[in-house]
Amino acid sequence: MTNEEIRTLITDVTADKSYNACLPDELYAYVRACVPEELIDDEEAFSKLFFTTLEKMCNDKELGRSGRGNIVSGAQLGYLHGTFRANAKGFGFLIPDARFSSLYPEDLFVPAEQTGGAMNGDAVFVRVERPGGGKSAKANKGKK
C-alpha cells in the first residue's frame, strides 16, 4: 500500500462521526483489520508506513493528540481542510473538502485579518472559531 492509500484509510476512519478517539496502536489495529491480507506484502513495512503517515497527519493538524495521547480528528480539534476563495476586499471563504461536508455543510467566512496570507485557490487548513455564535475560520496554514 502507498502512503496516500494509508492516509485515506486513516482519514476515513477518523472523519466518521462514530469515531471515538483512541491510542495510536488501537487506531493501527482498527485500520489494519480493514485492509485485506492480499494488499499487504510486508507487515513490518505497512506498520512503519502507517505510523509515519499518522505522525505527519498530526504535524499537519489533520489529526491531533488529546492530553492522554489519543488520536483525535482535526475536525474534533476545530481544524479542517478545504480550498480558500479570496475576495478582492481581503476576506475570503473556506470551501470545506467533501470529507467535512457533514460537519460543515456551508462555506466558512474567513475575516481579512485571519487569512494567514492564503491566496485564491490555495488548499488550506483552518482552525474553526465561533465568535458570537457565528461560523468563521482562521486560515493558519496555507498550502499551494
Please describe the topology of this protein.
Elements: H1 3-15, H2 24-34, H3 43-59, E1 63-65, E2 71-73, E3 79-86, E4 92-96, E5 108-110, E6 123-129, E7 136-143
Antiparallel strand pairs: 1-2, 3-4, 3-6, 4-5, 6-7
Helix pairs in contact: 1-3
Percent of residues in helices comes to 25-40%
Distance between the termini: 26 Å
Number of strands: 7
Q: Averaged pLDDT, please?
A: 84
Gyration radius, in Å: 17 Å
Shape: elongated
Q: Let me know the largest β-sheet.
A: 5 strands, antiparallel
Strand order of the largest sheet: 5-4-3-6-7
- Summed up, the helix count is 3
Class by SSE composition: alpha+beta
Percentage beta strand:
25-35%
List segments where confidence is low: pLDDT < 50 over at least 5 consecutive residues: 140-144
- Give the ordered list of helices and strands: HHHEEEEEEE
Give a description of the structure.
The chain has a 5-stranded antiparallel β-sheet with strand order 5-4-3-6-7, with no helix packed on it. A two-stranded antiparallel ribbon has the order 1-2. It is built from 3 helices and 7 strands; from the N terminus they run αααβββββββ. Strand 3 (79-86) and strand 4 form a beta hairpin. With 144 residues, it is of the alpha+beta class.
